[in-house]
Amino acid sequence: MRSAIKVAASDMVATLLHDAVAGETIEGVALREDIARGHKVALRDIAAGERIVKYGRAIGHATQAIAAGAHVHTHNCATDLSTTLDYRYTPHAALVPDTPPAGRFAGYHRADGRVATRNEIWVLPTVGCVARTAQRIAARAAALVGNAVDGVHAFAHPHGCSQLGDDLGGTRAILAGLAQHPNAGGVLIVGLGCEENQIADLLDAIPPARRGHIRTLAAQMSENEVAEGVALVTELAEAARATREDCALSDLVIGVKCGGSDGLSGLTANPLVGRISDRVVAAGGRVVFTEIPEMFGAEQALMDRAIDAEVFDRIVATVNGFKRYFLDNGAPVSENPSPGNIAGGITTLEEKSLGAVQKAGHAAIVDVIDYGAAVRAPGLTMLDAPGNDAISSTALAAAGASVILFTTGRGTPLGFPVPTLKIASNSTLAMRKPDWIDFDAGRVLTEGSDAAEAALCDILLATASGRETAAERNDEREIAIWKRGVTL
């Protein structure tokens, strides 16, 4: 088995695949110290101030002279990111498979042509004041509806009041997106009555053609809001009865996300998900990726994949807009990676970003959508949202993703409104946390990328056909909304 990975011929560092000790030879270089798995070793002497290259691109600069065989990490490498940039459009040809690959699943056909991977009833509170009420309604109704639907779930959140302008608009857009998601065969919107996020305004954000499966309840106007809510959910569940039918890979909308990354995420799990992304795009399906702050340092490679100059300009505006969001709030654009990322071997945001964007594969980027908006076109779409796991995954679901592929090197139990496959970057995590992890991307190193891709695609299709994910088995289903404005 390989002891380290050097990605590009120009790389100055290699990433270790196992814990190594001083004196061990890695890529022809003797280690000067013990170095943990996922961390980097210098393959040659690096001068102070010199750019350090991994993935064929700079991940920062040396803050001191680094000898060949030394550990390269936060003690001797620093970011070069600082502010917004000007970019030039230099389009590259997309490198997706020429022949759309086969792959079918059993999903639910909706009247508007979309396809669902689950047929559930969702209870959505307009405001945090009735979040617990929504949960009580869902729990009591679930015990009554039996197997009429795949489940009844409430999605609590603390927002919907004391918000203004775009901040309130973002909350409303996310809830409207969830309310019209194809996986929701029926939706009960529970309001309080006096909140800023009024039920009528939320309904106005949903096209009339997609309101037929929605019922509403204003708690202040009801004598017994829980009993009334349970009755409405029971009616919705009976009306939502449906049967799975044969569907093509092109019917899938997948969201891709990484969280709790380590030094192997950009070498195993993320490239593997990128291959699945390319497979779905080649078949005519839709892939949505996000985490804009985790593109900083890798954004030019994405911009070069814009399908045209208009999409390029929108990518630039989104990336620089997010940088300005950081700067306007007095935060550096490089305020990343997290402590867990650093412990796992990621040193700078450039390194994290270059690994993270691998999830988006090699297809052309056909569209850029705002936070809270829905995916509009087949192909690869960029979504404006932060890197926070819960916020970005909720935004992917609201955009229409019917399955999320979530890679992780450190592990997380968190689940979201749609089936979320947890993909471990390393076999140690997969073996240690089988109740969290659905797929071991460490298989890339032992079986090869082609075999791992085929295995992951099989699990994706089985999940789309109804196989429960680890998060679903653990009843891990949450949403989080991006709070950006003042609180009244």
Automatic annotation (TrEMBL):
Annotated signal sequence range: none
GO biological process per UniProt: D-galacturonate catabolic process
Superkingdom of this protein's organism: Bacteria
TM ranges: none
The keyword Lyase is assigned to this record: yes
InterPro entries for this protein: GD_AH_C (IPR048332), GD_AH_second (IPR007392), SAF (IPR013974), SAF_UxaA/GarD (IPR044144), UxaA_altronate/galactarate_dh (IPR052172)
Matching Gene3D superfamilies: 2.30.130.110
Keywords: Lyase
PANTHER family named among the record's database cross-references: ALTRONATE DEHYDRATASE, ALTRONATE/GALACTARATE DEHYDRATASE
Similarity remark: Belongs to the UxaA family.
Name the record gives this protein: Altronate dehydratase family protein
